[in-house]
Amino acid sequence: MNATHQDLTRNQTLVLDTLAKADGPLSAYTILDRLRGDGFRAPLQVYRALEKLLGFGLVHRLESLNAFVACAHPHCHAHGLIAFAICEDCGQVDEFSDAVVRERLGAWSADNGFKAEKTTIEIRGHCANCAAA
Amino acid sequence: MNATHQDLTRNQTLVLDTLAKADGPLSAYTILDRLRGDGFRAPLQVYRALEKLLGFGLVHRLESLNAFVACAHPHCHAHGLIAFAICEDCGQVDEFSDAVVRERLGAWSADNGFKAEKTTIEIRGHCANCAAA
DNA sequence: CGCGACATGTAATGATATTACATTGCGAAG
DNA sequence: CTTCGCAATGTAATATCATTACATGTCGCG
Ligand SMILES: [Zn+2]
Ligand SMILES: [Zn+2]
Ligand SMILES: [Zn+2]
Ligand SMILES: [Zn+2]
Fold it and tell me: Protein B43 CA to nucleic acid C13 C1', in Å?
């Protein structure tokens, strides 16, 4: 595990590159359309690649958008808990993490006997640039 | 605004009651099926009611499930930020809020000039009961 | 009554995701 | 080398979630 870029299959590489080149989140079907020229024909080709990439931590799913982004920090994977700030105007996504937030949510889980598997934090709003306009 | 239960229309009341009686989140189509006997025929009847109920704060949308729950605290809705702990085994949802988390995410937004409109926090995992089993 | 505002009814379509099954590529075991 | 097993891939069909478009109903108010 902890796969490097070299371990990726052709389809996984194509999907990851598509996300990396994009300026914002892409839906699975948008990825599919962008890869038609590379032989992609069916949604499953995209979803299967995404599934692996999500497992590798190279891609994140934005639940509130039903879309996907390449990880902004694929190296320093301190990925215990990630938060996303999503601009509704320009689509830009900012990925960050906060130790205090992680600690507080962890404390709630401990207090309530809840075994957390995955935490989603998504802030929808307007980025600095778009808010100015 | 700040609508009370009395202000609700028939369809809104039916949808809210369905959610309140359910033991967990329901998808829009599940709500539709449960209301066929009351004359519901089309998804839009559910989605329109949900849209209003979400606005009133009587219902929450769980982004990671594409499903909806009745608010657990429809009265003391001082919480500007709500978090959900969702059990993947039994479907139970626990709704809570944390002032420190709100403050930290607010601080990040302020630091980055981001104007937050809506924040989603969802923890997927296993509740105390199910984790024991 | 005549109008406007809002809720509702109905059909069609669009968008997102999964199931099922066949096939291919490739390294390990024999 | 051949066969086996496994993971990836290809393809079609289907399931699930959500919206658009347009017609109709209801009710308060001038
Ligand atoms: Zn990341
Ligand atoms: Zn922006
Ligand atoms: Zn609530
Ligand atoms: Zn449970």
Answer: 13
Residue ranges of domains in chain A: 5-70, 76-132
DSSP A40-96: --SHHHHHHHHHHHHHHTSEEEETTTTEEEE-S-SSS--TTS-EEEEETTT--EEEE
pLDDT tens, residue order, chain B (133 aa): 445 566 899 999 999 999 999 999 999 999 999 999 999 999 999 999 999 999 999 999 999 999 999 999 877 776 679 999 999 999 999 999 999 999 999 999 999 999 999 999 999 999 999 999 8
Residues of A in contact with B115 (CB under 8 A): 125-126, 131
What CA–CA distance (Å, rounded) separates A57 from A11? 16
For chain A, say whether B104 makes contact (Cβ under 8 Å).
yes
Strand D close to B14 by CB, under 7 A: no
Is A125 part of the contact surface with chain B (CB cutoff 8 Å)?
A: yes
CATH fold label, B76-132: Dna Ligase; domain 1 (3.30.1490)
* pTM for the structure as a whole: 0.94
